[in-house]
Amino acid sequence: MFRQLKKTLVASLIAALTLGQAAPAFADAADTLPDMGTSAGSTLSIGQEMQMGDFYVRQLRGSAPLINDPLLVQYINTLGMRLVSHAWSVRTPFHFYLINNDDINAFAFFGGNVVLHSALFRYSDNESQLASVMAHEISHVTQRHLARAMEDQKRNAPLTWVGALGSILLAMASPQAGMAALSGTLAGTQQSMISFTRQNEEEADRIGIQVLQRSGFDPQAMPAFMDKLLDQARYSSRPPEMLLTHPLPESRLADARNRANQMKPMVVQSSADFYLAKARTLGMYNSGQNQLTSDLIDAWSKGNIREQNAAQYGRALQAMEAKNNAQASSLLRPLLAADPQNAWYLDLATDIDLGQNKAADAINRLKSARDLRTNPVLQLNLANALLEAGQASEAVTILNRYTFNYKDDTNGWELLAQAQAKLGHRDQELAARAENMALVGRLDQAISLLSSASAQVKLRSLEQARYDARIDQLRQLQERFRPYTKM
Known about the structure:
single chain, three-stranded mixed sheet, mainly alpha, globular
């Protein structure tokens, strides 16, 4: 497994402003927006939303502690797309991201981008509760709440949103400065925005619980998770971050509980992937209170077979993280024997093998995996193992195909850059690093790297033409992004 975890902190006020890598998916049914006024089309088109979303995602990648773990990214996007496929009024592709943050929160912004805090795994008792948070955020997007807020502010305070959006970017780079800028920008309209936010929160609950039920999850999970948030607020000196960015008066909870009670009761079992994702998030990306505790592992050990397997997987993870690879291998062995095609187990086995300098074992196991051609997680694992084994040329073959299919995954470009460097292909290394720079919003640096790559190859060669064409594309992207960089 190839892990890449940035260490800088993201400003939590992104979530306060916004209301609230998977392939694009669109629902095949559409409903009309509730009669809450403008559809925001006069202020922001769908195309503009997607362009702004692209810009902000790049800033997020460059500034936030995103968890770029291929397994976890795959899980939350698979879960998210299951919900999106049962949502109505879907106008944009959706992408789901995970941030390493101890505060319980989630937020959505332009272009169908939904961000989850890793603490959600700690506080979600089951998959339906996690899905309820995601359904709520998806509904903020489908109902175009942020665009509507812009429409409202355009009428009442036309400069407020311009300054506020600029402050988001400043907050990503420097949280303290961003907080000061945002506070000053919103001072005059704060009360009206809070009121508007509550109205939209209620609508996101109302639409979200329908999405939750249509997707096959327990609708009671939504009020149950709200109850957990309120309980934490009662016994804590500081309320959960989610209650600050998603106001939760008693009326919201009562409404959600009433709606859930009117829906057909459902008994829903959490998937094995949910338990494994929870174990992995808490076991590998823990900080503060969000840790894979012995109490949780013991509780899982007494549960159903999915929980028991997650407990064993969690113990193996902890041993691997403690550099005790022999113990980790022993703990993982029975799981892998019972389910040799499980990507979670194959990924961990690869890490353990590489930790024991057994890259050949990892390569043989991965090449025998049934889903290698269709599962990007296994492809990245194999490329990483090949690199560790000194087989960079074969790794490049896999990674060229991978980066073509998954252009927005920084993991693939980083591995490709390493592989090309080992082969001494300086121009191709620079080009791969340029793509990474572009994905994190550093377009000037990306263009500079591509210019260096172009200078490395033969004049008027096909390679030079390709690098120069990519430079032109990135310059055009800079022009499209220029209005947002001036905010």
